[in-house]
Amino acid sequence: MIARCPALASLVLSLAALACGARPPPQAAPRSPAEQRVVDLTWPLSADVPTFSGEPTYKAEVLETIQANGYYLANVTVNEHTGTHVDAPAHFAAGGATVDQLSADQLVGPAAVVDVTPAVAASPDYAVTAADLRAWEAKHGPLGPRMIVLIRTGWGERWSEPARYRNADAKGVMHFPGVSPEASRYLIDRGVRAIGIDTLSVDPGPSTTFAEHNQFLAAGGWHIENVAHLDQLPATGATLVVAPLPFRGGSGAPARVFAFLPPR
Fold this sequence. Notes:
This protein has 7 helices and 12 strands. By secondary structure, the chain is α/β, with parallel strands linked by helices.
């Protein structure tokens, strides 16, 4: 019976070793955060960051200075959806959770990085498909609950040039990649908790219906938009910590986003 039960056999051998004065083999200790590499996926906030409207949505007014007052203090005014930020379900779903209602447990999870940069190079309006997600799963395993799926389009390389990042045509229509409703539904069915992307919106730039927002946020999911430095993450293995400001009743908020990676 012991031979048929490896766990029981291991326990018996350990007890026998202790009886003989020997120590059982040490177990591998879990990695502490201090042992892990950390990648900051956040763009710094300032008045000149790219915005969906094209107008500044951040303002800092200096109130006190070290020279005059002995300390520095500024008053900051910012739109909920400025820079690297979170879209809470309430952004598009009536009665959905507001940003302060997203629990700490919901805001941490394993990252899956889906790289579609070749497709985006061919078409700036590219929308991630369910086929893209199935191809990722074929290489890396199934997408599932607790996961945060990050879409790497390569668009972040344009961040320092707001006009190129918005990529608006003569009629004011923006052209940047996003996620199709089909892919969004695929992730909802997998139980994925959040979608992040390195563009202004999870919906592609030309969208006027925001079909992906309406679908994914209504299902209880949430977004991270304007994610930085996705080229520094592996396809799997990172753990994401997303920390939006908990504006009471907010539809979203600027966020600091960290990726914890195993040591090299």
